[in-house]
Specification:
Number of domains: 2
Strand order of the largest sheet: 2-1-3-5-6-4
Distance between the termini: 22 Å
Helix content: 25-40%
Number of helices: 7
CATH superfamily of the largest domain: NAD(P)-binding Rossmann-like Domain
Shape: elongated
CATH class of the largest domain: Alpha Beta
Length: about 250
Amino acid sequence: MSTKKIFGLVGKNIAYSFSRNYFSKKFAKLNLDNCSYQNFDLQTIEEFSTIFSKGSEPVFGLNVTIPYKEKVGSFLDEIDEDAANIGAVNTIKVLASGVKKGYNTDVYGFSKSIEPLLKVHHKKALILGTGGASKAVAYAFDKLGIQYKFVSRVPKNETQISYGSINASVVETHTLLVNCSPLGTSPEVHLCPDIPYEFLTNKHLLFDLIYNPTETKFLQKGKAKGAVIKNGLQMLELQAEKSWEIWNS
């Protein structure tokens, strides 16, 4: 009998999980009866080690989501160069030796998802939010040669600006806007980042990492101004497949 292989998602308040649903369907389609995907809902990252002490079935791989992408690295034995440079881990592979190695597949997922939509005038971007996902987006923009500013409620350095400082001129020159904040996620679909949407045009591209709902208020407001919009579903699917590739490499 083959060993049961456990995979899972590490996060907080993740009762509804894209990853668990996605991989459960994938395992069923591939007839991988020995594979199981679970949610590891941790109230603090200090509980991370308990994932490996529960039960006798070995954990082979993990995905990591809010709010632990930036914190989980200190609990790992190794970190891939890209993930180290980004400062965020969203995929963990457990080697046969027990070594836990961190990777970041958000960059891959985001890049592949947004590249087909990029035009020559998309040279500057506003990244709304400063968490782990925003760091992956910034890393992708670095590779794509796109300048960017982080937008934060409390700017901490020269790479960040406040929401209150976004005016017509800033919106006009930054034709890429990426929402990396949780604002607008179901069930709080009435929320959206506090930016002057009235200055958006059909030259703008709005990308929201949120996938539920399909069209957040952020995207709806952009669409109303003629902007191209895209949600985070394809990005999630792409990063999930990259995770699977890493776990099986």
